[in-house]
Write a structure and sequence with these properties.
The chain is an alpha+beta fold. It is built from 4 helices and 5 strands; from the N terminus they run αββαβαββα. The chain has a single domain, classed as Cytidine Deaminase, domain 2 (3-Layer(aba) Sandwich), CATH 3.40.140. Helices cover about 25% and strands about 20% of the residues. It has a 5-stranded mixed beta sheet. The protein starts with 7 loop residues before the first helix and ends in a 16-residue tail after the last helix. The model has no long low-confidence stretch (mean pLDDT about 95). The structure holds zinc ion. The site of zinc ion has 6 residues, from helix 3.
């Protein structure tokens, strides 16, 4: 979809994601990611990727934003998430510049498997939580956690049900 068709809240999330992306600490991958999330109580949080020389201690942007939400609100439910990723040298302005490039399915930016698990953990069982990402042709992809992560392991598999 086109950026202009997003709701005000979704545009705000993308603005925050674009801003926080500039703070990424990514001296190894040079891949800068910014994420903003909105909780069910309409509060917003942002996070960027933070790489460390040991690699395994790297914090992903999605996790960073969600952990900020949990730090502020406790185990809150995620409502929406906006993601902007790209190599360090790519400057992203909003509204994004559109190109005529037709996207292929595998070009749609999605969170990594680690982050899909982090996201699902705060969906509180709602597979309809919306994930928006900026594609390299300037269009916005809108998917749900169910679309991108159909078979999930989560709190319920351990007999746990928190946040409700
Ligand atoms: Zn990730």
């Amino acid at each position: 979809m086109e950026f202009e068709r997003l709701s005000i809240e979704e545009k705000i999330l993308f603005g925050m994601a674009a801003d926080v992306r500039l703070n990424a600490q990514a001296p190894y991958s040079h891949f800068f990611v910014g994420v903003a999330v909105m909780s069910e109580s309409s509060k917003v949080y942002a996070g960027c990727n933070v790489e460390r020389a040991s690699w395994t201690q790297t914090t992903h942007a999605e996790q960073n934003a969600i952990d900020s939400m949990v730090s502020a609100e406790g185990p809150a439910k995620l409502w929406k998430l906006a993601l902007i990723g790209g190599t360090e040298n790519i400057r992203i302005g909003l509204p994004p510049k559109r190109t005529k490039h037709e996207l292929t399915f595998d070009e749609v930016p999605v969170p990594c498997g680690h982050c899909l698990q982090c996201i699902w953990e705060n969906c509180h069982g709602d597979g309809g939580v919306e994930l928006f990402s900026l594609c390299n042709n300037g269009q916005i992809a809108k998917i749900t956690i169910d679309n991108v992560f159909p078979l999930k392991f989560g709190p319920k598999d351990l007999g746990v049900n928190y946040g409700k």
